[in-house]
Amino acid sequence: MWSVNNMKNFVPKFLLQLGLLILISATAQAAELFPEDAYSGYQADIKNGETLYNAGACGSCHGAADNHDLLGGGLKMSSYVGTFYVPNLSNSTKGIANWTNAAFLNAMLNGVSPKGRHYYPVFPYTSYAGMKPEDVLDIKAFIKTLSKSDNKVDAHEISFPYNVNAAMSYWKRSNFSTPRWSPGKDDQLARGKYLVENVGACGSCHTPRSTTFGLETDKALKGGKGLTGGYAPAIDASVMAALPSPDAFIKGVLVEGKKLNGQPIVDPVMRKIVKQTAKLSKSDRLAIFAYLKGSEVKIQKQKLTVQTCSANVTAATNTGNANTDALSASADDFIGKYCRNCHGLGQSAQGSFPAGSLSAIAADASFITPGSPSTSRLYKSILSGRMPIGGTKPSQGEIQGLADWITALGSKQASAIPAPVASLPPRMRKIIKRDVMVRAALADVSGQSELDRPFIRYFSYRSHYNGRFPCETEKQYSKRQSLYIAGLNKMLNSVSLGARLVVPETVANTKELLVRVDIRDLGWDQYQWDVLVNAYPYGVDPHSDPSLSALTKETHSVLPIMRSDWFLA
Q: Do 200 and 287 touch, CB atoms closer than 8 A?
């Protein structure tokens, strides 16, 4: 779907070139089209067509609500430029019954209709363009074996200038550069790449889009708004590598219709996709997982020896697996809607509240007191309105649903939730205490000019580092640290009033967990900093710590060090 929120940035440049494109677009595109008699005698492999039809989940958009193989179309997609209606793809006169092989190839591989008009990129032909032509025709042959539908689909309702054919010609020149199919390796990764990038068009939903609806390839598969309006989560290598077993994806997601956290998928389109991916062979599903992970994967026949740390974590995080009732599903939806976009695994505020699986949250005594919403930190943050920051706030009914879930945990605690503290394994990294950061800042500020000290402030990543990931090593954490650093730098410069880019200085001997800024570089004075101080919930009385008191005097601020996770959130 052309689900773009900021298309206005695209309009001026487009209008300037529209006239020229009207003159040249048809000629430029025609040279690439398949001639009318192309592949006219091809003998299709219907079995292969069925496999690729399921891998592409064609019925998820074109199929009826209760039958993904009845390809009557009609699904409505609303966007900035207008409303799209998914066409009838069945083997009827209202669908593709009269299409030649060349017409079908031009649609799938070139994004051009039998009438010569350019398709909108709600139809992911930019992915299909890398498919083998014979595979495309095998899908067409399989579609002919399915039931026909006489459903007449409404015409798209697209506003000017996007309803002009040349608009898509212009878009293609900037965004349609998919390499055409060519023979290559025949191994697991190559098969996975073909199924993910081309047949399945996974990036069309799971990769963010630019303001002109082109794919942001530098953020491939890192999650975005899907073509049908739902949120498509990240499925890149970092997500796949973090899974305890390939089965969580190749079976849990692609067959059983579960999210990676074990809860059921509720998005109706994704549930239809699962009905088709469940029909794929295990080798194809494993190939998809291997490509997403970035390395070949083989399923071990023998039972793997589980390390002590992993075993303990499994014991601790399996505590909520029995919570499959309606309250648990509702709570998981709540966390997904209001928390995981910032606090989910790999997100900017993960360290302050790791919003992973619901079972892990239920076992985290720092945020949940089973049976007692009023003393649960998660519930109190929501009820007070402090969270979520910005965006839509949860309704009273949703908040009550969260409270009901926490209350229900109390009755299950004895049998379902063993003491989480006792089951946690020894940490792989030592906890860094606050006074370590304070002493480091005091030593650092002492090396600054006395005239500069009143303007020196510090941001600490200590809370991110400490976190609640006992099995995570220093090396594993360092991969996340770079994300936090980038996030803080971006946030600081987004609120800076200064003329130059500000990059905080790392304080020595702090494992890069403490950085220094001069608020004058941000164009700030004491007043702007005090606005943050007044809203900051984690302040400590300077008189409670001699080192903090000394730092306060040097910087002329009651809050010389601020938690980066709070600032980012």
A: no
Nearest residue to 351 via CA among 543, 515, 513 = 513
User: What number of other Cβ atoms are within 10 A of residue 412's Cβ?
Assistant: 18
Q: Give bridge partners of residue 264 from the DSSP assignment.
A: 258
Interior angle at CA 9, CA 485 and CA 19, nearest 5: 145
Residue 485: both structure tokens together: 């650093």
Whether the Cβ atoms of residue 320 and residue 306 lie closer than 8 Å to each other: no
542-548: average pLDDT: 88
- The closest alpha carbon to 201, from 289, 125, 118, belongs to 125
Taking 3-state DSSP, the helix, strand and coil percentages for the chain, each rounded to the nearest 5, stand at: 45, 5, 45
The CA distance from 437 to 448, in Å, is: 17
Cite the beta strand spans of 416-526 per DSSP E: 456-460, 505-506, 514-518
445, 451 Cβ separation under 8 angstroms: no
Residues 6+ apart with CB under 8 A from 228: 1, 61, 75, 77, 205, 269
What pLDDT, in 10s, does the model give residues 246-278? 888 999 999 999 988 778 888 888 888 999 999
Between 243 and 227, residue with greater pLDDT: 243
Torsions phi, psi of 3, nearest 5? -90, 70
DSSP H or E run through 290: helix 282-293
The alpha-carbon radius of gyration of the chain (Å, integer) is: 28
Give the single-character DSSP code of 281: -
Contact by Cβ (8 Å): 235, 277: no
Cβ pair 15, 88 in contact under 8 A: no
Taking residues 475-485, what's their average pLDDT?
85
- CA distances to 63, 262, 282, 286 from 277, rounded to whole Å, are 15, 17, 10, 12
DSSP string, 237-278: HHHHHTSS-THIIIIIITTT-B-TTSSBP--HHHHHHHHHHT
Judge whether residue 125 has pLDDT over 80.
yes
Looking at per-residue pLDDT, the higher value among 385 and 9 belongs to 385
| Whether residue 478 has pLDDT greater than 70 | yes
Quick check: 20 pLDDT over 70?
no
Residue labelled with tokens 């025609």:
30
Give pLDDT, residue 344.
65
Question: Helical H runs in 318-460?
Answer: 326-338, 340-343, 358-362, 377-383, 396-416, 420-423, 434-446
Q: Dmax of the chain from CA atoms?
A: 87
CA distances from residue 27 to 3, 15, 497 in whole angstroms, order as listed: 29, 20, 50
pLDDT of residue 89: 92
What is the DSSP pairing of strand 82-85 with strand 231-232?
A: unpaired
